[in-house]
Amino acid sequence: METLVYRFEQGQRKLGSAAQLVGVVSSGNLEVLVxxxxxxxxxxxEVNTAAVGFGVIWQAVMNDFNQRWQLADCRxxxxxxxxxPAVVSLRMDQAIEACLEQAK
Amino acid sequence: xxxxxxxxxxxxxxxxxxxxxAEVLGNDLQGKLFPPQRIGDCLxxxxxxxxxxxxxxxxxxxxxxxxxxxxxxxxxxxxDLHMLQSVLALPEHLDVFxxxxxxxxxxxxxxxxxxxxAKLVSAGKLxxxxxxxxxxxxxxxxxxxxxxxxxxxxxxxxxxxNLYTGPNTEDTPTIVEATAFKSGxxxxxxxxxxxxxxxIDIPAGWVDFVVQAxxxxxxxxxxxxxxxxxxxxxxxxxxxxxKGIYSEYEVKxxxxxxxxxxxxxxxxxxxxxxSLGLKGKIASHWALNPHPALIPAIEAGFVESxxxxxxxxxxxxxxxxxxxxxxxxADGSMRSNxxxxxxxxxxxxxxxxxxxxxxxxxxNSSTATLGRIxxxxxxxxxxxxARGRRHASPAWLKAxxxxxxxxxxxxxxxxxxxxxxxxxxxxxxxAFVEKLDAWQLAEQANMAIPPVMIYGDDVTHILTEDGxxxxxxxxxxxxxxxAIRGVxxxxxxxxxxxxxxxxxxxxxxxxxxxxDMGIDKRMATRDLLAAKNMKDLVRASGGLYQPPKRFxxx
Lengths: 104, 554
Description:
The structure holds 2 protein chains of 2 kinds. Chain A is an alpha/beta fold.
């Protein structure tokens, strides 16, 4: 088990919705919990992953995620069971799109 | 004084073989038929040391009784056979080399026996002439690899020796034609001998001996994929394929490779593609085995025609009930033909889309892995621009225009060749590499060139979960490399991309992400599959599709 924490400052987009949970914790999959929270316009992501030693890839996945969405005041918790980067990105995008849809 | 040359040595030799066999079999030979227990005696006198022998090892149907009989020959009497086979599937196909009965091999695909084949080669028990694509090997049957003896498999024979090969006709007509018309000997194993055949696939005049095998020939259900195992990433990639390629190029005539990536596309036609208004506009004419996963698209009216390389176990009754779609005989059962379907896929299809294991920075794609000699099969014939093609279609013209835009080359079209792959395979193995394993394998196995499945200069698009790279639009080797890196995700190759250049390629539409295509990723769930499991496929077929036992998991 490994825990990785990322924080991106000065986000632009507030989700302003209730918490969203997508995905399940099963082999090759992950769950993503998204909450709105006052973080002085930052976005915080905590990853708990069963696969140890992929820090470089997680960092790249999170950088791209931040670039896509530029979230502000958002806390994301991820429980991962060895999902590929593709699945991680898809789940995270699905969670954010669900938040945005709900806030409309 | 010159001695007059004899021009009929092949015919004379053929007569000697037939005569020897008639003498050995005696009263057991009834016309062309003899009992299975005499197969050893027959082969011992029909075959001569050094013969080129074409054993029907197909993609699906196997002449397994004859293959076994070959392994029981006395190597002191018959040896150094030169085996010609499109597919090495059974252990017996290699046992003949282990036992010193055969010594040379020309073939096309050996997936199931790839590891053992590599071992026999390095032990010096087997000499590979060449590894071919299907059409290439069949072509050589008519030029410099004509079989002296062919050992084939049919469903049934009548007492005159006519053969019914039925849905899994596959290679039989090609092999028999090459052998029978160059004074060779054709021996067929059949499952049953009947008074009247449903239809005649091979006329008796081309067949010399028929033997009823004690058990029906083996057929592998090679193209059946359980929809329950399709992932959401595969659904997302299928959405990108449909919206970013099928729709964009109006692809009507196509071939799909084997695997879950393309199965997902087949299952998204009646749902996602229909929702985009694409019914009747894409994917109507196919060179394809009768994939069970195509049933929902057929039922939804997407598909107009399917010609097949071989059949697929369990699809017989469904095919029989859809004669407008499939190629069937007057008797109602399908007839496949691998050589003709390969030609159809090469010349008459506008697109090939299939999976692979490794792609390098030039877009070369390979399924070769170390310690295994797996060969090629049909993908290279499908996944190659047909340089001899002249007729136009919207897809072919558009691809040609894109490749030539801005240059003063004479207009011509181009085939779409799409490689579809997740950036990471199982166990986080990257699908994108700086150098293909094929190079190392070539060195290990002493091959003249690395075994490349599809050459980069034929590949037009690479599709991953990261997006689509349109290689037709790349104008330099550097652009091409960055376009490939740009869809290589978080693999080392992908992470080493030049970010500015990749963004530039994206601005120019050379790289398209899901969001650039207007794809809503929330829709990328298994709910989008027209069938979510095997039972759904059976239901979609109205109960006509009968999956093999191992796929019956309900």
